[in-house]
Amino acid sequence: MPKSSIRFVLFAATLALCLPAAAQKHDDTQLWPEVQVTWALPHHWSLMGAAGYRADDNLSHLFQRYINAGGGYAPSRYLNLAGFYRLDSQRPAQGHHTLEKRWTLDAIPHLPIGRKWGLSDRNRIEWRWLNGALSERFRNMPRVEREFSLDGHKLTPYLAGEFFYDTRFHLWNRSRFYAGNQFGVNRHFTLDTYYMRQFDARSLPRHINVVYTGVKLRF
Question: Which CATH topology does 3-218 take?
Answer without folding.
Answer: Lipocalin (2.40.128)
